[in-house]
């Protein structure tokens, strides 16, 4: 589920606009918004349902299209992973998680007691899952991968499916971690993000949706949202959440402000900095942080990271 519809990139759009110097931010009249609206009306930009631009915390443009309105809950698809990353940071802030070096399998003793786990996999950390660089044989961009998300979806119990994944091998033409940028071999793995949600449930003692509401959504004034669950009832940290457009902008503002919201530090500032910094590199050259993409775009002769 790497590719997402337009609503799913609203988080990135909000952060990108805010990251520019406020003095240099173009006012709405200079952003060619009529041309954008006309392109959407002609269906040149596919599946666009909303566009919201925010500068210095103030909405300067808000438009809804193709049947959507301000109360529409948008399926943000894999941008759900980025919200799961924020929840990991919130759990670290609260002390429910010790840090990104916490070992994943330590949270599932009933599994390790009944299943042999390779010692290399037993060393898997939250950071490995956050950066899509674990040693699980899991690659959603390889239809033959054992851990491909579509195989997980048709299994009855997603958690054992993921925890039982084998160690990945590296063919001679594949980059090993030590030869890869940032020392991590990237492979897009939705199952890993699902397991992060399961870790959060174990660490906090709450369903993922309830914890998200308590530490993130309600403090930001988000009152309507939807989280999916696996067949065995575990919150889906890898996709399928639904938010209103303005609520996505609020999440973007939280990241822009270093995890702080209304004088309260909701997510550690250093965690946010690491989350949006390059921790791994995808095959197309895009940067990847903690479940946040750093996409390189060309605009008026300049390369921007969004």
TrEMBL record:
<dbReference type="Pfam" id="PF00144">
    <property type="entry name" value="Beta-lactamase"/>
</dbReference>
<feature type="signal peptide">
    <location>
        <begin position="1"/>
        <end position="24"/>
    </location>
</feature>
<feature type="domain" description="Beta-lactamase-related">
    <location>
        <begin position="50"/>
        <end position="293"/>
    </location>
</feature>
<dbReference type="InterPro" id="IPR012338">
    <property type="entry name" value="Beta-lactam/transpept-like"/>
</dbReference>
<dbReference type="InterPro" id="IPR001466">
    <property type="entry name" value="Beta-lactam-related"/>
</dbReference>
<dbReference type="InterPro" id="IPR050789">
    <property type="entry name" value="Diverse_Enzym_Activities"/>
</dbReference>
<keyword id="KW-0378">Hydrolase</keyword>
<protein>
    <submittedName>
        <fullName>6-aminohexanoate-dimer hydrolase</fullName>
    </submittedName>
</protein>
<keyword id="KW-0732">Signal</keyword>
<dbReference type="GO" id="GO:0016787">
    <property type="term" value="F:hydrolase activity"/>
</dbReference>
């Amino acid at each position: 589920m790497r590719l997402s519809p337009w609503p799913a990139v609203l988080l990135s759009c909000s952060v990108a606009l805010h990251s520019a110097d406020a003095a240099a931010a173009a006012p709405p009249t200079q952003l060619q918004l009529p041309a954008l609206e006309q392109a959407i009306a002609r269906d040149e930009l596919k599946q666009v349902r909303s566009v919201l631009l925010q500068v210095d915390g103030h909405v300067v443009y808000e438009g809804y299209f193709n049947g959507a309105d301000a109360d529409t809950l948008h399926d943000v698809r894999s941008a759900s992973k980025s919200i799961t990353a924020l929840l990991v940071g919130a759990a670290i802030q609260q002390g429910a998680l010790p840090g990104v070096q916490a070992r994943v399998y330590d949270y599932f003793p009933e599994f390790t007691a009944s299943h042999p786990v390779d010692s290399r996999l037993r060393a898997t950390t939250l950071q490995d899952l956050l950066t899509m660089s674990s040693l699980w044989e899991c690659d959603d961009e390889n239809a033959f991968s054992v851990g491909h998300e579509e195989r997980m979806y048709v299994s009855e119990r997603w958690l054992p499916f993921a925890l039982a994944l084998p160690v990945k091998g590296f063919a001679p033409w594949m980059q090993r971690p030590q030869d890869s940028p940032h020392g991590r071999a990237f492979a897009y793995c939705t199952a890993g993000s699902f397991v992060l949600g399961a870790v959060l449930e174990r660490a906090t003692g709450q369903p993922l949706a309830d914890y998200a509401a308590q530490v993130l959504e309600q403090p930001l004034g988000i009152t309507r949202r939807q989280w999916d669950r696996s067949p065995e009832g575990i919150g889906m940290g890898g996709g399928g959440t639904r938010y209103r457009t303005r609520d996505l902008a609020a999440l973007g503002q939280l990241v822009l402000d270093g995890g702080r919201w209304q004088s309260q530090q909701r997510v550690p500032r250093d965690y946010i900095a690491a989350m949006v910094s390059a921790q791994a590199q995808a095959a197309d050259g895009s940067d990847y942080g903690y479940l946040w993409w750093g996409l390189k775009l060309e605009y008026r002769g300049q390369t921007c990271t969004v």
